[in-house]
Amino acid sequence: MRNYQSEKQLVLNYYQELDTSSKSNITKVMERYLDENYIWRGFHPFNEQSSAKAVSELFWQPLRH
């Protein structure tokens, strides 16, 4: 039975890098981990976004001070 430890570690690494990156580096981190066909379905007013760049600029970057 597979326990998915490598996949879990990948997700943890992604969020660790996202959490510790500078505001200007968020897009690069996301693009390193996410597929070019990435679709993010957020709640209003963010709605559906179809790129890491869009999610970075509309959602994650504004959360940084």
TrEMBL record:
Name assigned to this protein: SnoaL-like domain-containing protein
Protein's organism: marine metagenome
